[in-house]
Write a structure and sequence with these properties.
alpha/beta; four-stranded parallel β-sheet
C-alpha cells in the first residue's frame, strides 16, 4: 500500500509539474510572439493598403482609357451622322445672337434664349431666366454684332467687358460650366471690322483660359462647311447647325469626361 501511495503521489507530482511547464511555455510563447504577430499584421496591412491603392489607380486609369475610347468612338459615329447629336443636349441653355437663334429648330426653345441683333450685353437681360432654368451647361454664342460697336472695336475693352458679364453669370450659377463659342467667320465684309474676327477669337480664347471657361473653336468646322452659309455671307443655313452642334457637344463631352 505504501508503494502504491508513493507511486500515485509521484505520478501526480509529475503530471502537475508537466502542466505547469506547459502553461508557462504557452504563456511564454504567446507573450514572446504577440509582438511579432502585431508587427506581421501591421506589415501585411501596409502591403494591403499599398496594393489596394495601386490597384485602384490602375483601375481608374483603365476606366479613363476605356471611357476615352468609347467617347472617341461615339464622336466618330456622330461625325458620320451628325443629325444624331441633338438628343445628347441635356441640362443646357444657349445664349447668343441671330446666328444662334436657329438652334431652336432642333432643340427645345425653352432653353434656346438667343435673339436677333444682340450682343454680350444680352446676357445681363437673360440672367434671371438662366438662373431659373439652373442649367449645368451654359453655351454662349455672340460676336457678329459686338465687333461693330465702337467701344468694342478695341479688343481689350471687349474682352474686359465680356469677362465682367461672365463673372456675374458665374457668380449666380457657380456649379455651371460656361462654354464660349468662337465668333463664326463672315465671308463678306459689309462692315470693315469683320476681317478682325480671328483676332477677337484669339483674345476670347485667352480670356477663357484665364478665367476657367471652356473655349469652343469653331474655325475648322466653319471652314469645312462654308458652303452652308446663307447668301449674305454672315448667317448660316439650317443644315449648318448639326455640325455646329456636334462641335459644341465635343467640347462638352471632353470637359465632362476629362479627355
Amino acid at each position: 500500500m505504501r508503494l502504491n501511495l508513493r507511486g500515485k503521489k509521484t505520478i501526480v507530482f509529475i503530471v502537475a509539474v508537466s502542466m505547469a511547464l506547459t502553461a508557462i511555455g504557452v504563456l511564454f510563447f504567446r507573450t514572446d510572439n504577440s509582438q511579432e504577430i502585431a508587427k506581421g499584421r501591421a506589415y501585411l496591412k501596409s502591403l494591403s493598403s499599398q496594393d489596394v491603392t495601386r490597384i485602384e489607380n490602375q483601375v481608374k486609369a483603365q476606366d479613363a482609357q476605356t471611357n476615352k475610347a468609347a467617347i472617341n468612338q461615339k464622336m466618330v459615329q456622330l461625325e458620320r451622322d451628325p443629325i444624331k447629336v441633338w438628343p445628347l443636349f441635356k441640362d443646357y441653355v444657349i445664349l447668343g445672337d441671330s446666328r444662334a437663334v436657329d438652334f431652336n429648330l432642333f432643340l427645345d426653345e425653352k432653353y434656346c434664349l438667343a435673339e436677333k441683333n444682340k450682343t454680350i450685353n444680352h446676357i445681363k437681360t437673360k440672367m434671371d431666366q438662366v438662373v431659373s432654368l439652373n442649367p449645368r451647361n451654359i453655351i454662349i454664342a455672340y460676336g457678329l454684332n459686338d465687333i461693330s460697336i465702337p467701344r468694342w472695336k478695341n479688343i481689350n475693352t471687349y474682352t474686359a467687358d465680356f469677362t465682367q458679364i461672365l463673372a456675374a453669370l458665374h457668380k449666380k450659377l457657380p456649379h455651371a460650366t460656361i462654354y464660349v463659342n468662337s465668333i463664326l467667320p463672315v465671308h463678306k465684309y459689309p462692315e470693315a471690322n469683320y476681317h478682325r474676327i480671328p483676332d477677337y477669337n484669339v483674345a476670347i480664347a485667352k480670356m477663357c483660359r484665364s478665367h476657367g471657361y471652356v473655349y469652343i473653336n469653331n474655325s475648322a468646322m466653319a471652314a469645312a462647311h462654308s458652303g452652308l452659309y446663307a447668301q449674305d455671307g454672315m448667317h448660316v443655313q439650317s443644315s449648318f447647325y448639326k455640325y455646329w452642334g456636334l462641335n459644341i457637344m465635343k467640347a462638352i463631352y471632353a470637359q465632362e469626361n476629362n479627355v
